[in-house]
Amino acid sequence: MRVFLRRQRYLLEYSLASLARHPGKYVLLLLVYSLLVFLLASVLLFSQALHRETEVLLADAPEILVQRLLAGRPVPVPAAYLERLQGIRGIREPSGRLWGLFYDPIVRANYTMLVPQTPEIPAGEIQIGRGIARSRGLEVGDYLSLRNASGATQAWRVAALLDGEAELVNQDLILMNTADFRQFFGYPEGRFTDLVLRVPNEREQATIAEKIVRILPDTRPILRSELLRTYSALFSWRQGLIFLILLGVLLAFVILAWDRASGLSSEERREIGLLKALGWETSDLLRMKFWEGAVLSLSAFLLGDLLAYAHVFFFGAGLFAPVLQGWAVLYPQFHPKPFIDGFQIATLFFFTVFPYTVATIVPIWRAAIADPDEIMR
Amino acid sequence: MIRLENVCKLYNQGQHNEVRAIWELSLQLAPNQITVFRGPSGSGKSTLLALIGCLTRPTRGRIWLEGELLSNLPERFMTQVRRETFGFIFQRFNLIRGMTVLENLLVPAYPLAPPYSRLRARAMELLHQFRLADRAHNKAEWLSGGEAQRTAICRALINDPKILIADEPTANLDRQLSREFMGYLEGLQAEGKTVLISSHDPLVFERPGIARIVALCDGRLCLKEE
Ligand SMILES: Nc1ncnc2c1ncn2[C@@H]1O[C@H](COP(=O)(O)OP(=O)(O)O)[C@@H](O)[C@H]1O
Ligand SMILES: [Mg+2]
Fold first, then answer.
1. Which domain holds residue A172?
2. Strands of B60-65's sheet, edge to edge?
3. A153 plus A264 within the same structural domain
4. Pick from A83, B80, B128, B181: CA 20 to 30 A from residue A120's CA?
5. B90 touches chain A (CB under 8 A)
């Protein structure tokens, strides 16, 4: 056992010395390798962070949202609908929401205006998302004035900036008072944009949705679980696109590694022959080369992964954000909470270190099983 | 004792460029002697040494070492015999560039994995014996021809093999260094080693310490052996 361990140590030392003897050969490989890991890890981390943020966002959302449709388009819901919902067993806290979109021609962007349920915002005040604050140059205490539906200018004092957990979605949000909202949009009294209600028992949700449609045939209930699925599908689709591109990069990398290794320089081939002639077994050679590859791929993996971590969590994933977020109108600065996912790291490890190791070991194995008598010539 | 019986070695067997490097060769070699294989270039000297030294297997025929049949051994055992029985000195020395003299010496010992302190002590002892102690930490590529040659001898001796194999060892040396080299080999023979040399250099096979000269012609023994 001690001899076995010592043998491994000698082989490892030889590999390290060998890496040190050919710095030029390995630096390029290390760079390309790290870059690949960096790209793959960035996509993985970023899309997973998006998933998490969305889940956080939807976590407090009501289980069911009810819209009223007219000719297939959502229209204001009469307050009377609320009372009719009250009769359904299993429903809690039904309430009407007021929200709308406003196009601000100055920054050429849409704002989402919303009346929060609690706490109520005093008349004449608003709370705004950081995206709006940035683009309009607003700070707490400043005034924002916009032209309302009847053509008059309406002004609010900025009482606070929003920084929710899901920064991505809070960017373009303006929270305001009910009366201000109705005045601004000319929204009819006694009507809501949509209704929300809680259904604590998850298994009842589908049946309750059916009942709602029966009682109020001109409405459409939307389940939170469906929303989550839609978001996930959207993210996955975009992520898939990027992965397709990265697959190409991965392939190129494997070819590079293969080429480097199978185009074993005559010097390397000679060294393998020499070591074998001097009494190294094929397994010793493979193990030595395996260590060499392991050291290389582990350092590349660590380097790439750390860079990706910093890229996504500390630099807002600057490289991918435009592709993966896309829909946001005000360009959000995305600062998700850092997390470490063991499974993800394992996946990434498998998809980078494994192909590299195979790509390099095979040609070395072919050189190592040959008779070493070539060394005599 | 080494015994070869009807040994053939073909390269590119069955193809149009088939080469009979060694053909139906039978031979016995006594231990603790210096034996020189002479013959023109291409006569099969290197191939024969490679066969004896377990670097390759004969296409046909059998080879015994101390009564043990080598030619049928599986690869692993062949490597083991090679590691424990033979020390090689190659024509081009084949030191590994970028590694120091000392590191080059240790390479054949790695698979045996002796404790480092013992291994290093043995290496330094050899370096002293061959006047290389002050070169221990020099890179192999900066050595003079004579130093490289002595380093090659030290490396061949690191595992204390019974048989030394030297393939055209003087081809890259001047007369002075060649003589010095033969002196070393004669000294090792006197210590009890069996030495097998291939050469077509008269300076080698005209040395008095040589017990036997085997002449090769086109992969066979020449008709009259000296
Ligand atoms: N790997 C090989 N492939 C093909 N031919 C070879 C190979 N090795 C040796 N030969 C041929 O075998 C013959 C004997 O070679 P070798 O043993 O090197 O002779 P020597 O060492 O006496 O010069 C030569 O004709 C050589 O070209
Ligand atoms: Mg030769």
1. 64-198
2. B19-29, B2-11, B60-65, B68-69
3. no
4. A83
5. yes
d(CA A309, CA B101): 44
Is residue A141 domain-resident? Answer: yes
Total domain count, chain A: 2
B92-120 pLDDT, tens digit each: 889 999 999 999 999 999 999 999 999 99
How far is CA A185 from each of CA A103, A153, B1, B85, B107, rounded to the nearest angstrom?
12, 12, 108, 97, 84
How many interchain CB pairs under 8 A, A with B?
Answer: 76
How many angstroms does the Cα of residue B28 sit away from the middle of ligand 1?
22
ipTM: 0.93
Residue A169, domain CATH: 2.40.40.20
Q: What is the pLDDT of residues A5-20, one digit of tens each?
A: 999 999 999 999 988 8
Read off the tokens for A255: 């070819």
Instruction: List helix spans (H) across chain A.
Output: 2-21, 23-59, 80-86, 130-136, 167-170, 178-185, 205-215, 224-262, 266-277, 282-314, 321-324, 342-368
Specify whether A182 is located in the same domain as A240: no
- Report yes or no: B117 at the A interface, CB cutoff 8 Å: no
User: Is the residue at A269 inside a domain?
Assistant: yes
Whether residues A81 and A179 share a domain: the answer is yes
- pTM (2 d.p.): 0.72
A340 and A309 co-located in one domain: yes
Name the residue of chain B whose CA is nearest to A13's CA: B110
Distance B172 CA to ligand 1 centre (A): 19
